[in-house]
Amino acid sequence: MKINPLRLQQHFEAMSLIGKIGDTGTCRPAHSSLEKEAFLLAASWMQAAGMTTRIDDFGNLIGRLEGSQPHLPVLMMGSHLDSQPYGGRFDGVAGVLCAIEVVTTLTENNIVPTRPIEVISFADEEGWRFNKGLFGSRGILGKLEAGELQRTDKDGISREQALLDFGCNISNFKASEYANGSIFCFLELHIEQGPVLDIANKPIGVVSGISGPLWQTLTLKGMAGHAGSVPMAIRNDALVGAAEVIIALNEIATQIPGAPTVGTVGTLQVFPASRNIIPEEVTLTLDLRDIDLERRNKYENQLLQAINRIAEKHGLTYTLTEDTNSEPRYCATWIKEIIHEQCQLLQLDAPELMSGPFHDSLPLSYVCDYGMIFIRSKDGISHNPLEYSSYEDLAIGCNVLLGTVNTILNKQ
Ligand SMILES: [Zn+2]
Asked: Are strands 369-375 and 204-210 parallel, antiparallel or unpaired?
């Protein structure tokens, strides 16, 4: 049993027209009329595959293929159809369209699963419109936070208003939540969005887990002074301190060659920011991620020691605040093993790799076992119209997903 690569390609091509920017880009904001258009198109393919479809009150699109035992916990697959404002054609889309193709192939082969299968396109995975993502996947699990509906986009439209405009009934969220134990497992196929597979020249990767980011904000304070008159020996230059912190984080994150640890300073604010004044205060963001929480904690401690040493060396004071502290979430070993088996059947040498970015799998990991399949991203580019994965690679990944689903259905 194999998927139909031509049909899959046609679905990608048709979906890429909705919210198209430039030759290869996509802008499909969450809860927008463009996302609705994408949902209706995807729903038509779900229906052709024998699924019933609905849009729930969080703005998720859900297709359901009934099982011979409808009360059994569902095998859920999916991703998202919203995109970054200057995004590509494959991020999220791959996981939804490949899941639909898998179900289409199953029904074409007259397979009636024992447990129900659901394909879901989660609302607002990307998070840029309201500065908070994974909305739909957290929503169905009852994990929304206080004040989320009052967040506004750049035009002043609240999440609440956007959901109402989308046709959602926000007083009925409870009815769209999934009860504990009602999801058997979750499978997500996604483009890698990084260069590991491309460099290794492998089309498919098996995800080991989603790394947990530690986000901190550091403010270093020194003393301003005339850039022409204060002697070097008595300066308290906050920017020199910040530069050393950046180097320190880089050295900490690279101390084990080849390890998946990543550390980034992505922003730097300098005060008073004059070429003629010694920088008095610098605020920078620290992002540290690792699949190994113990190692990340150790590195966090090394970073703190480095900050103390650097502050003392330059006569600086500092404040360090924690913005986000997520733990790594590992894929289920039994699902990873099935994915590896399927790769071997297709003569694929599929490396295991971790995911630096978040995915809808992250909230799902708290309620069920999950597995992820990565597709090679050309040059590792994503969140950019240049994002590219070949239809050949996507078809291979879709066949791995099909084999994985079929094995799970036969096993359980
Ligand atoms: Zn995505």
From this structure: antiparallel
